[in-house]
Amino acid sequence: MPPVFSHGDLRLYLLNLLDESPRHGYDLMQALSDRTGGTYTPSAGTIYPRLSKLEEEGLVTKVVDGRKTVYEITAAGRAEVAARAHELEGIEAGLADSVRLIADEVRGSVREAMKSLRADLAASAQSERDQAERDRAAGRASASTGPADDARTASREQMRRAEAIVGEFRATVRADLRTHLAHGGDLGASVVDDLSRALDEALSTLTRALR
Asked: CA-CA distance, 95 to 185, in Å (whole number)?
C-alpha cells in the first residue's frame, strides 16, 4: 500500500487537526489512526519532531498541563490552513479512499471465509453419506457386525468434525472484525448483509446435502 501522506501532507494535516482544537501528542496520533481507518498509526518519533518544527515556525504553541503537553495553533497557523484549503481537500479524499479500501478488504475476507465454510460443510456432508453407504454395505455383508452402531459412531464423529469447522470459522470471523474495528475501521451494513446472505447459502447447501 502506498504511503497515506505524501511529502509535506502530514505537516499540513497536523495543523488542520490543531485548527479544530488544541491537542496533546497522543491525541494527535490517535486522531490520525482513526481518520485513516487504522492504515496509518504514527509513532511519537514521527509526530513530536514535526510539532517542534511547527513551533519553531510560529505556527503552533505548547503549554505543559500536568504530565501532558498541549499544542495549540496560532493565528499564523490558521492562516496557512486557510490558504491551503484546496490541498486539505485532496488529503481528505485520500484518507477516505484508504478507509474504503479497508472495508473492501474486510468484505473480501468474509466472502472467502464463507466459500471455505461452504466447501468444508459440503465435504463433511459427503463424507458422512459415503461413510453411511460403507456401513450399509458392510451390514449387508455381515449382519453380525452391528451396522447400526457403526453408523451411529461414524455420524457422531462427523458431527464433532462439523462443529469444530463451524467453531473455527466463527472464531476467525470475530477476530478479524474486532481487529478491524480496533484499528478504527468502518464496518458497513453491506458487509454484515453479505455475511448473512453467505451463511444462509451455506445452510441451504448443508440442508440439501443431508436430504
From this structure: 12
Give the C-alpha separation, 206 to 211, whole Å.
9
Q: Which residues, at least 6 apart from 176, have a Cβ–Cβ distance to it below 8 Å?
A: 106, 109, 110, 113
pTM: 0.47
Domain range annotation of the chain? 9-83, 101-210
Q: Which pLDDT score is estimated for 72?
A: 96
CATH, domain 9-83, list 1.10.10.10, 2.60.120.920, 3.90.209.20, 1.10.375.10: 1.10.10.10
Comparing CA positions, the residue from 77, 101, 100 lying closest to residue 13 is 77
d(CA 100, CA 44): 27
